[in-house]
CD7 protein
Amino acid sequence: LLRTHMQPGRVLHVSKLNMSEVSPAFVNRLEYSREGNRMVITLQNLQEDDSDNYVCAEEVTNAPLLSASGTMVLVQEAEQACEKSSWVLYALTVVVALLFCSLVCCTLYRVDVKKYFQKKKPNVVYEDMSYNSRRSTLVR
């Protein structure tokens, strides 16, 4: 894999023995896999200075590389837009949380919460069932 325009040079070189050589600028940011004649190269954490024309080329002995179209990669910084939207999201979350807390506090203030947590007195009716009280009701 070669860079051809902005910073010409070799990004990745893989020999037939599967020995690889990665450019220091792409160490820990480049992965590749090889299956037969097919190779998949993945570049990660791209930066603005990674913008360039990338060409996959095969080394052929005694034959110079005449031309190749390659793939143009243009990296633009988009983190600022994400950061702004994330701040809006955080602010909105905080506002919703504060409104919810104030709603709960107002509800608890209006409702007499103590009466729900007090121990209820059981309904007890006491009747005197002694002999004297029964006798007085029988006479009447």
Q: What stands out?
A: The CA atoms of residues 131 and 137 lie 10 Å apart.
